[in-house]
Amino acid sequence: MSIKECPFCGSTDATEVNASLGNDWSVCCNQCGAIGPDEDSAEFAVKAWNEGTPRYHRVHKLEEALKLIIETGERSSLAIAREALE
How many Å apart are CA 38 and CA 21, to the nearest integer? Predict the structure, then answer.
């Protein structure tokens, strides 16, 4: 199964990653660093990434916006947060 483009940045450069401890697999975007949900196998991790869930993507966008607001105080991040809430 091929990995679809990143839902956050649109990059096609994403790979399966196995946690060093345990059997947790996830897909990671090598462009923006987005990480999909932990799954029991690489196959399930790719499936979860490809199918995605609106709630997961929304939470990720909000986390990124909040990090930017906290780190930089940049007001343009507020627009990102507002967009994620819509």
Answer: 12
